[in-house]
Q: What sequence folds into this?
């Protein structure tokens, strides 16, 4: 966690917003996860309030327990930080939405400031059900982060993720406080930003720290849209990155694939040069 907060602070020094997310494994202690998130919010309280930082939670790692999620949210709001719910397996989505709905109903006191939202939610663009989940989020004033999604939907419930993304962009345009696109695809990012501008929807681009980012940073600069980084931490980080390449080997054929490799310092240096 300490390394994650350090990276967040460095990235924020480059005028990039950040979110910190723990990559958990089966058997992790949810109470320890709560303590880590509370500590991270406390560490970053002084220099990253407002729109600069938020926490990304994985509800399954918290056993979908309201008390665990509420404890994290209460600390985050006190420190001026938002709270995001990551997406997981298709069959875990209902439990994720139920937990988020419970927290919204608790009316936890959110700190004031520029942030137009308190809670945020990932919607996989490859799932048909995300259409209805987008309407659910819009009714509750929840920020939406569009992701391709790591997990498949049941047979007949899948969409082409590119088409699904633009469909969701058009659906939530003007209906949610903010839209974030979590992608390293420049063409998709450009289309998303153009769609959002037509409707006056606030949009940002969100990158996964460790993956190729210089092209997206340049695009964000050219378009004048905020760019942020999802900073992962946890013992399973290396496993996650290797698994991603195993399931998506074409990523190694990208012209910027070499950016995947190197130390954290090398990756930070590339980011700094791209700004």
A:
């Amino acid at each position: 966690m300490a390394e994650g907060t350090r990276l967040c602070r460095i990235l924020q020094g480059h005028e990039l917003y950040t979110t910190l997310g723990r990559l958990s494994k089966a058997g992790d202690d949810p109470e320890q996860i709560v303590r880590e998130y509370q500590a991270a919010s406390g560490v970053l309280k002084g220099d990253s309030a407002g729109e600069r930082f938020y926490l990304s939670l994985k509800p399954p790692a918290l056993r979908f327990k309201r008390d665990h999620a509420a404890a994290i949210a209460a600390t985050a709001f006190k420190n001026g930080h938002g709270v995001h719910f990551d997406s997981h397996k298709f069959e875990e989505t209902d439990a994720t939405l139920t937990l988020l709905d419970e927290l919204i109903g608790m009316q936890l006191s959110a700190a004031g400031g520029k942030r137009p939202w308190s809670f945020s939610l990932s919607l996989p663009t490859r799932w048909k059900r995300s259409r209805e989940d987008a309407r659910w989020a819009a009714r509750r004033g929840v920020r939406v982060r569009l992701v391709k999604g790591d997990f498949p939907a049941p047979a007949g419930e899948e969409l082409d993720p590119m088409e699904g993304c633009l469909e969701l962009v058009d659906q939530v345009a003007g209906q949610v406080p903010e839209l974030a696109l979590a992608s390293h695809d420049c063409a998709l990012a450009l289309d998303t930003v153009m769609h959002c501008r037509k409707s006056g929807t606030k949009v940002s681009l969100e990158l996964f720290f460790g993956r190729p980012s210089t092209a997206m940073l340049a695009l964000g600069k050219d378009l004048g849209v905020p760019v942020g980084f999802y900073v992962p931490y946890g013992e399973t980080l290396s496993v996650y990155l290797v698994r991603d390449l195993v399931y998506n080997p074409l990523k190694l054929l990208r012209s910027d694939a070499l950016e995947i490799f190197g130390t954290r310092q090398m990756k930070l240096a590339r980011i700094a040069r791209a700004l």
